[in-house]
Amino acid sequence: MAHAYTPGLKVLEYTVLTKQRRLPLPGDIVVEKGSTVSAEQVVARTNLPGTVQTLNVAGLLGTLPAEIDDVMIKRPGAACAKDEVIAESKGFFGLFKSHVKSPIQGEIESVSKITGQVILREPPIPVEVIAYIDGEVIGIIKNEGVELRTAGSFIQGIFGIGGETIGHIAMAVDDPNEVLTASIINDSFKDKVIIGGSMAEFAALEKARDVGAKGVVVGGIEDQDLKQFMGYDIGVAITGSENVNLTVIATEGFGKLRMADRTFQLLKSLSGRKTSMNGATQIRAGVMRPELIVPATKTDPKKKTADLSTGTGLESGMKVRIIREPYFGLIGRVVGLPVELAKIETEAKVRVLDVELEDKRKVTLPRANVEIIEE
Q1: Where are the alpha helices (DSSP H) in 170-259?
Q2: pTM of structure
Q3: Which helix or strand (DSSP H or E) is residue 136 part of?
Q4: When comparing pLDDT for 130 and 328, which is higher?
Q5: Are the beta carbons of 3 and 314 closer than 8 angstroms?
């Protein structure tokens, strides 16, 4: 019998994964297939076209558009400095000339005899794409980017803000139920990814940013604290582009939620290690989870290799997190998957499952109310 797709949250001590790193426009690839790269290393670069500005030179000089070539000092393709004269009227007997100066530094892109307009373009903007993860280049995407492969620990969160960052993991608390407060954070956390417990207070997020931390990972966060920290209310489509100088990941959800023991203990075992972190989250089509990737060392145990691209069906014994009330945030294991439809409070008939919670309670709930935690 077919089963419904169940979302999964991955907390893996060892896995192998691949990532593509692409340029926004065609450009140059600066690494070779088979080479080993560090997370901070540039793998591709290009130039984004500069901003365009338009000047009505014919109108400013009182000449006909068809005669604009006669007044232009600078021709298409010529460089110009800010406030440099690019056009000049003939005046009367060589006197009383009017001038048009360039409002930008850049170049003359085009001159139109139809409209009398001159288009200027600012210098191109260099763009570099870094590897983001330590790994091996396993493929070159011509003029676009590279495909990388790495092995190590992989942890996904429920929600995050802020883009990609790289830092070293630093434990700030000893218990996954402990709240991360500002008093715990000091200058030693500069350039670190701070691991907290059940929640991060607003003051703690501000302190982390002030000391120069790269990121914060906690079980939960209050939505009003997040709004205050960002300075605006967050949207529901996709995050990751926020300019807040700190990447934040909540592993369990919103509110004060104890970080899952497995997640906390794995992060604790990785303390001091370099991690690549991305808070980008998308909850609509094409779900994207915030993540931490910690490259493996030669001495790390190679216990599991998972395919991160395939969906997962529920099976007995699987570890799951409940994602709706009244058991929101609790973790347990699947102990039963009844075939028959069951009636729920809304009078609808749905497929359900039996879950044994960590405190040994057994509950029955709709299968749509859980997500798998991959081990």
Answers
A1: 202-211, 223-230
A2: 0.77
A3: strand 135-141
A4: 130
A5: yes
What does the DSSP 8-state code read for residue 34? T
Asked if omega into 326 is within 30° of 0 (cis), the reply is yes
Determine the average pLDDT of the residues in 196-220.
Answer: 96
CATH number for 158-289 (one of 3.50.30, 1.25.40, 3.90.105, 3.40.50): it is 3.50.30
Q: Which strand ranges, in their side-by-side order, compose the sheet holding 106-111?
A: 52-56, 117-121, 106-111, 79-80
Structure tokens at 55: 């000047």
Answer yes or no: are the C-beta atoms of 136 and 149 closer than 8 Å.
Answer: yes
Question: In whole angstroms, what is the distance from residue 300 CA to residue 270 CA?
Answer: 10
Tell me the per-residue pLDDT of 68-84, one tens digit each, with 9 for 90 and over. 999 999 999 999 999 99
What CA–CA distance (Å, rounded) separates 128 from 46? 7
Instruction: Give CA–CA dist 32/30, Å, rounded.
Output: 7
For the segment 260-302, what is each residue's pLDDT rounded down to a tens digit? 888 999 999 999 999 999 999 887 655 788 999 999 987 666 6
d(CA 246, CA 185) in angstroms, rounded, equals 14
- Locate CATH 3.50.30 in the chain: 158-289
DSSP string, 215-236: EEEEEEE-HHHHHHHHTS---S
Query: Cα separation of 261 and 197, whole Å?
Result: 10
Do residues 151 and 304 touch, judged by C-beta distance below 8 A? no
Strand pairing partners for 371?
321
pLDDT average, residue stretch 226-233: 89
For the segment(s) 319-374, the CATH number from 2.60.40, 2.30.30, 1.10.287, 2.60.220 is 2.30.30
